[in-house]
Automatic annotation (TrEMBL):
Record-stated family: Belongs to the YciI family.
UniProt domain YCII-related: residue ranges: 15-107
Protein name stated in the entry: Uncharacterized conserved protein
Entries under InterPro entries matching the protein: Dimeric_a/b-barrel (IPR011008), YCII (IPR005545)
Lineage: Bacteria, Bacillati, Actinomycetota, Actinomycetes, Micromonosporales
Top-level taxon of origin: Bacteria
Length: 135
């Protein structure tokens, strides 16, 4: 089994097919989207492939260490163009192909008009150290 991170980009990824911003969705469309996500996670819990998932707030800060003392907090200078990761899901699957298959299904979550978003998801394997060779 291998763990993969599925990143749901709200801004910063290629535009989805159903490219209506979530803030323009009706409450019913948002509920349908959230139910799809919840049902998807529940299905993966039953197969043992679900690890965790979280939605993320839009607010955030870039932080870096800059010598002794407090690290400076920066968020710009062009905050309106920064990438926004809407959420993530961690899965534990048998193969890269299975991770791609599940990401494709997750991409079909409904959006505006109840139509699938067909959003782009970033699929990233967890880093694993190379096995140590001993003789």
């Amino acid at each position: 089994m291998a763990k993969y991170l599925l990143l749901k980009h709200y801004r910063g990824a290629p535009a989805p097919v159903n490219d209506v911003p979530m803030e323009k969705w009706t409450p019913e469309e948002i509920s349908a989207h959230m139910k799809y996500m919840s049902d998807f996670a529940a299905r993966l819990e039953q197969t043992g492939e679900f690890v965790d998932a979280q939605a993320l707030a839009a607010e955030g800060s870039w932080v870096r260490f800059d010598g002794e003392g407090r690290p400076p907090v920066t968020d710009g200078p062009f905050a309106e163009t920064k990438d926004l990761i809407a959420g993530w899901m961690v899965i534990d699957v048998d193969s890269h192909e299975r991770a791609i298959e599940l990401a494709g299904e997750l991409s079909a979550a409904p959006g505006a008009g109840g139509k699938p978003i067909h959003e782009w998801l970033e699929v990233r394997p967890f880093y694993t150290a190379s096995p140590t060779v001993t003789e």
